[in-house]
Amino acid sequence: MTTIGSIGIGLFLLIIVWIVALIVFVIGVKLQSNISWIALGTATSLTLLLIIIPTDKKHQALEESIGNDEFLSKVMNSDNPVIVTFHAEWCEPCHILTPKMKELIEPKQNIDLAIVDVETHAELVHTFEVKAVPAVLAVRNGLVVDKFIGLVDADMIEQLIDKLDKKL
């Protein structure tokens, strides 16, 4: 997810919509115009629409940070290849790489993404000998088939995804 400050872009845009709607509402009330209610109705409708839009549950389950217990079932025993991203909240390159990984993996129906927070899942960090973040592992049939450390360009990520995608 792309962030502005510490909030997602969607929430940021929703806040902007509400600020504009409230400004239009106040101006509309002072001018005794119906535009005030139209602005609030539009903002409310947009908010409700964004809340009820269904999300892709297949990818959503893995895109949330997973822990030690889930790792075995969702990554090592997965029928699909899984790209595992080790990240930390304090890591600026992680905040660039993880959304890019999500963006590039989302269209692929046969590759999953797992995100591991290194601060809360030290056992996984130790098991996979993660020495720096961001660290990315490509796992197929329970085996690490490729990996890289650090912020890389989109071409390298696409090569990793294509490599996993072609060996199915």
Describe the protein.
With 168 residues, this protein is an alpha+beta fold. The protein folds into 2 domains: 50 residues; 110 residues, Glutaredoxin (3-Layer(aba) Sandwich). The chain has 7 helices and 6 strands; from the N terminus they run ββααααβαβαββα. A 4-stranded mixed beta sheet has the order 4-3-5-6, with helices on both faces. A two-stranded antiparallel ribbon has the order 1-2. A hairpin with a 2-residue loop joins strand 5 and strand 6. The longest helix has 22 residues. It is elongated. It starts with a strand and ends with a helix.
Question: How would a textbook summarize the main sheet?
Answer: 4 strands, mixed
Helix tally? 7
Low-confidence stretches: 56-63
CATH topology of the largest domain: Glutaredoxin
Number of domains: 2
Structural class: alpha+beta
Strands of the widest sheet, in order across it, are 4-3-5-6
Kindly provide the radius of gyration, computed on alpha-carbon positions and rounded to a whole number of angstroms: 21 Å
Series of secondary-structure elements, N-terminal to C-terminal: EEHHHHEHEHEEH
Strand content: 15-25%
Separation of the first and last Cα atoms: 27 Å
CATH architecture grouping of the largest domain: 3-Layer(aba) Sandwich
CATH class of the largest domain: Alpha Beta
Q: Write the CATH homologous superfamily of the largest domain.
A: Glutaredoxin
Number of DSSP strand runs: 6
